[in-house]
Amino acid sequence: MEGKACIKVRELSKQYKGSSYLAVNKLSFEIYEGEIFGLLGPNGAGKSTFLSMLSGLIKPTSGEAEIFDHKLTTDTELLKRIIGVVPQDIALYPTLSGRDNLLFIGRMYGLSEKELKDTVDKYLNRFGFEKNGSNAVKTYSGGMKRRINLIGGMLHNPKILLLDEPTVGMDVQARTSTMEFLNEVNEQTKMTIIYTSHDMEQANTFCDRVGIIDRGQILKLGTPDGLPASEGCKDLETLFLKLTGRKIRD
Amino acid sequence: MYRLKATFIKEFKLLSVDKTGITILFIMPVFLVFIMTLIQQQAYKSMSQSGVPVLLVNRDRDSLGTAVERGFSNFPVAQLTVDHGERYPNEDAIRKEITNGKYTVALYIPANATKILEQNVEEIMGRMFNKGQIANNTKVDIGIIIDPTANKPMVIAITSRLKQYLADVKTGVLFNIMGSKIAGMMHAEIKGGMPQEDIFSYKENYAFRDNRSSYQPDAVQHNIPAWAIFSIFFIVLPLGGGIINERSEGLFIRMRTLPGSYLSLLSGKLLAYFFIALIQFLLVILLGVYVLPLVGLPVLHIGSNIVPLVLLTVVLALAAVGYGLFIGTLFDTPQQSAVFGGISVLIMSALGGIWVPMNIMPEVMQKISSCSPLNWALRGYYELFIKGGGWPAIQTEVIKLSVFFIVCLAISYRIFQHKTNTN
Question: Do residue B309 and residue B411 come from a single domain?
Answer without folding.
Answer: yes
